[in-house]
Amino acid sequence: MFTEGYSVGVARVEITPETPMWMSGYADRLWPSQGSVHPLWAKALAIQDCRRSRAVVVTTDLIGLPREVTAPVASRVRERHGLERSRIVFNATHTHAGPLVWPTLKNMLPLGPKDERAAIEYGRKLSDQLFSVIDMALSDLAPARVCYGEGTVDFAVNRRERTPEGVRIGINPVGPVDPRVPVLRIQSETGRLRAVVFGYACHNTASASDSYRLNGDYAGFAQIELETRHPGAAAMFLMLCGGDQNPNPRGSIEVAASLGRRLAAEVDRVANTELREVCHPIRVAFETISLNFAPHTRQMFEDERRSSDPARVRRAKAMLAAYDDRRPIRQTPYPIQALRFGPGFTILALGGEVVVAYALRLKKEYPGDVIVAGYSNDLMSYIPSQRILREGGYEAVDSMVFYGLPGPYADDVEDRVLAGIHAVMRLVGLHSKSAQKEAEDADSPDGDL
To answer: How much is the average pLDDT of 52-57?
Structure first.
């Protein structure tokens, strides 16, 4: 039975670069892209409840979307549609076979002036395309039914392999993983499938670094498979907390296509079952907190400037320039966003490459169905847990070179992120199970019921 309440709009815009440009995600590539396997897309889902409260979810086949892109787009949408920043989620699949999105990860690549100009120009065009796809989705609103369910796939593996020399990127068969595949099914009032939004916590790195053909990796192939099965419907992939997760197997475009078909089959299976209906109203919150970096000195970067590693030299020069300006980098802004749909379904969108421990913890802490998506609204760095920060390795330390940041985060990074999450969730009326129990205990006569 169709339930009135939501109106939904869906739109897409192709964002494949028109000319060769450097691809992002792997540091060992030697030259720009050479054609594409399939188009890259930006897609938007606009949802309006019965009180005309609206929200938009944007997905992109890209390495990430920096705030230098998302903030101006959100401002333009506000001017045109009156939509506040808190009502737009920007998510990227984190494909390592997509173009460089300036300035994210620019320190990873040996870019010349021509390369920088091409990346900056692509970013300008991308901003227009993102505004356009949101504008089209908001202009496409029609009555719809929104339902939610979950499936599972098992090709993600924890990649933090412990060795006598420390943690390296490999395979850790006993490390934490999140096999869940959240599925949001959107149907017209006649029952026609208009869109399916799905996610997974796993790096989009199934294709190899020696491939120079643009593609969306397994997430791109999954979307293509679903849209082939359901002509006229849009398939949208949300990257979840896959910072320390890799696909297994991996290593070629053929593997990426195979994994994409596996994921699509599970999404299609879930979408064809009896799902829980998502109810209105829509409540939103968006906060930007600050994350501290571990203490550093000018001398540290004077020493690093003599490194044989070109990326470290580039990082050292940037940090020394900041010291010269008397503005050494001590903090970075961090966005946290929540979209809550009725009492039982919430999208929690976190910036950066969030490791899986956050999603596993938050799933236990909050009632109802909560999708925890990383890679949202900004891509400043990996976001390690306290344990990963203590262990070191790529996610905690080495990757900061490629992001052009001064070093690892301070010891309080997990505490700060969780405090920010709890504050944002409270703003949309969702309290953690522990907070609920504390409130119940406080209300009880003896405080111990």
So the answer is: 96
Q: Residue 432: what pLDDT? A: 86
Q: Evaluate whether 197 touches 373 at the Cβ level (below 8 Å).
A: no
d(CA 271, CA 184): 8
Per-domain boundaries in the chain: 6-285+333-384
Report the first-to-last Cα separation within the chain, whole angstroms: 42
DSSP H or E run through 424: helix 413-427
Tokens of 1: 């039975």
Mean pLDDT of the chain: 95
Who contacts 391 (Cβ-Cβ below 8 Å, separation ≥6)? 160, 162, 166, 167
CA angle 424, 352, 267 (to 5 degrees): 85
Q: Do β-strands 142-152 and 98-99 pair in parallel, antiparallel, or remain unpaired?
A: unpaired
235 DSSP β-pair partners: 196
Strand pairing class (345-350; 369-373): parallel
Cα distances (angstroms) measured from residue 192 to each of 54, 149, 152, 189, 291: 22, 18, 25, 7, 45
How many residues in total does the chain contain?
Answer: 449
